[in-house]
Amino acid sequence: MALFSRELGIDLGTMNSVIVEGSQVIVMEPTVAAIVNEDARKMVEWGQAARDMMGRVSESIDIVRPLQNGVIAEYSVTEGILKEMIKKAGATSFLGSTKIIITTPFGITSVERRAVEAVALSSAREVYLISQPISAALGVDLPIGTPSGNMLINLGGGTHQVAVLAMWDIVNANTAKTGGLAFDEAIISHLRKKFGVIIGQPTAEKIKINIGSAIRLNENKNMEIQGQDQVTGLPKPINVTTDDIVDALEQPLIDLVTLIRNTLEKTPPELISDIIDRGVALCGGGALLTGIDKYLTKALGIPAYLVDNPMTCTAEGASKAFGMRNVLKRSLIRV
Ligand SMILES: Nc1ncnc2c1ncn2[C@@H]1O[C@H](COP(=O)(O)OP(=O)(O)OP(=O)(O)O)[C@@H](O)[C@H]1O
Ligand SMILES: [Mg+2]
Questions:
Q1: Pair (14, 80) in one structural domain
Q2: Ligand 2 geometric centre to CA of 14 (Å)
């Protein structure tokens, strides 16, 4: 690290935001803010502290996710969170010389991209944009500099991105504006239908992470949760099993397979045969869902595997891109 210049790779996600410097993850926080909803909408908490307040605060405080489906929905809140993250990274005093490479979802509109540019320029002197499939591929060391095809699937909280990469570029890709949050919604809806019970998103996510699976398991795990009776509004405990979650996730998983198939259909046959040889890399927090690698391997007929660093690879790749400016050329855009 040079004395007066900091080079940060930044991934602002719908659910989590990450800053990497060199190869170190230096900040990782939920992309959540607690906002006083009167006056000037002042941000009173952010990150994990704000996430912990979700569903537990009075009406005078809004708990917001300023990114939706990977794009900035509330500009000033996003700016506030990014400023706090950079402060936490200890780069504020270097603001005048901070350089950042920030990721954008594939398929973003020019208006959405300009919001990312503006938010980044408010916190750094030099800003570059990189598309998330490319930075994630760099972050997991896929050999994308060769003419052979590589496939990477990023299962985020608000997006599912499928990309085929070669020669440092995206050959073809698809983004669906749906992700892990839609899986949580499917769990909420299934449990309401099956048990007549209402639960919140944080509980649905906890169930998904603790006992959820894409496929039936030999051991049908279970978890006791407190819901709210749909009719009486009173607390109602229920016992949820892995099989309940497999059932709940059936449709969103079918939608994911359709997205991947659509991308494969538009991929030249030579590249498909490379992808069959190399397998499909799964990243993003959603790749941690139990059994999703086996599920996709079976549904696609192509081996799918979980990468080592699914939740941080996109930011790690952005940081790595600082040393690759000469090869990335068109894939790394100076703002
Ligand atoms: N063990 C797990 N099993 C299933 N899902 C998980 C697990 N761990 C995390 N997730 C899910 O991963 C998602 C968050 O992943 P990630 O941090 O990659 O998203 P993001 O980058 O913030 O979103 P996006 O890229 O769509 O903007 C959440 O929906 C979360 O529920
Ligand atoms: Mg992401």
A1: yes
A2: 7
- Model confidence over 142-187: pLDDT tens digits? 999 999 999 999 999 999 999 999 999 999 999 999 999 999 999 9
Task: Kindly give the distance from the C-alpha atom of residue 37 to the centroid of ligand 1, in angstroms, as a whole number.
Answer: 27
Mean pLDDT, range 216-232, rounded to an integer: 96
Q: Do 180 and 93 lie in a common domain?
A: no
Domain count, the chain: 2
pLDDT band at 1, cuts 50/70/90? Answer: very low
* pTM (global) more than 0.85: yes
The best mutation among 20, 29, 208 to test binding of ligand 1, ranked by most ligand atoms within 8 Å of the C-beta, falls on 208
Ligand 2 centroid, distance to 295 Cα (angstroms):
21
3-state secondary structure the chain: CCCCCCEEEEEECCCEEEEEECCEEEEEEECCEEEECCCCCCEEEEHHHHHCCCCCCCCCEEEECCEECCEECCHHHHHHHHHHHHHHCCCHHHHHHCEEEEEECCCCCHHHHHHHHHHHHCCCCEEEEEEHHHHHHHHCCCCCCCCCCEEEEEECCCCEEEEEEECCEEEEEEEECCCHHHHHHHHHHHHHHHHCEECCHHHHHHHHHHHCCCCCCCCCCEEEEEEEECCCCCEEEEEEEHHHHHHHCHHHHHHHHHHHHHHHHCCCHHHHHHHHHHCEEEECHHHHCCCHHHHHHHHHCCCEEECCCCCCHHHHHHHHHHHHHHHHHHHEEEC
- Domain range enclosing 219: 144-307
Counting from 1 in the atom list of ligand 1, the atom nearest the Cα of 314 is: 21
